[in-house]
Design goal:
The chain has two domains: about 30 residues; about 100 residues, no CATH class. Helix content is about 55%, strand content about 5%. The protein is built from six helices and two strands. The protein has a two-stranded antiparallel sheet with strand order 1-2. Strand 1 and strand 2 form a beta hairpin. The longest helix is centred in the N-terminal third of the chain and has 30 residues. It starts with a helix and ends with a helix. The structure holds heme C (3 copies). One heme C binds next to helix 2, helix 3 and helix 4.
């Protein structure tokens, strides 16, 4: 009897510990300077600051939104939705004083900052433009 209760307690504690570890990791990321908007981007000029979804949600779930959008576009031909990758780049890309866009995945730029910190490297930009393209500019 005693052992079975202890064992059950262990099974309850394990997921709680995991959730706490993940939550505090996420908070460390959210509190750090990593991921701040880059100056010279449209995003940095929006007042009050607002992304396509609430910011805390974007911090944790942007990858799911983008991948869902990809499936909608590639498999169902639906485009121009507010979660398009082209849209993220158009708003978040930095522009230098000369008006030239700086690739979003260049060192220290918006899509690189957090990813570098957490060790994620995106294969996406082998095919996808890292600066706004004429085709995405009028979306
Ligand atoms: C081998 C090339 C290739 C790679 C790698 C790739 N894609 Fe794509 N992706 C495409 C093509 C081609 C389309 C269709 C282009 C279109 O219809 O606009 C597309 C469309 C999309 C779209 C819909 C269009 C848009 O701008 O929203 C999204 C979102 C997307 N991809 C996300 C991703 C993400 C995220 C990754 C990395 C995890 C990725 N893709 C990697 C080729 C690629
Ligand atoms: C029209 C402009 C615009 C578009 C389009 C946009 N964003 Fe944002 N995004 C913002 C702004 C402004 C903020 C800052 C919000 C704040 O400070 O609360 C932000 C915040 C974020 C954050 C949190 C950054 C941090 O410092 O923690 C992430 C991640 C993010 N966006 C990813 C994306 C992705 C991925 C897409 C495409 C699916 C996208 N955004 C599309 C304007 C935009
Ligand atoms: C606030 C920090 C932050 C910013 C800014 C950010 N990301 Fe992320 N992104 C993450 C984290 C953390 C992960 C890894 C999550 C995981 O490992 O499950 C990730 C993962 C991803 C993935 C999934 C990669 C994979 O292989 O599964 C995609 C796609 C992605 N990000 C796209 C973007 C794009 C595009 C931008 C710029 C518009 C961006 N992210 C900006 C924090 C960020």
């Amino acid at each position: 009897m005693f052992t079975s209760v202890r064992r059950r307690a262990w099974f309850v504690m394990l997921p709680v510990g995991l959730v706490l570890a993940i939550a505090s990791g996420g908070r460390a990321l959210a509190d750090s300077k990593v991921g701040a908007l880059v100056s010279g981007s449209k995003a940095a000029g929006i007042q009050p600051p607002q992304c396509v979804e609430p910011t805390p949600y974007m911090r944790r779930h942007h990858m799911e939104l983008i991948l869902h959008q990809r499936d909608m576009t590639v498999h169902e031909g639906i485009r121009g939705n507010k979660h398009s990758l082209a849209g993220c780049i158009d708003c978040h890309v930095a522009r230098g004083d000369d008006g030239k866009a700086v690739p979003v995945n260049a060192e220290g730029q918006f899509c690189d900052s957090c990813h570098d910190y957490v060790g994620v490297s995106l294969p996406c930009f082998q095919c996808h433009a890292t600066v706004p393209t004429p085709a995405s500019a009028h979306k």
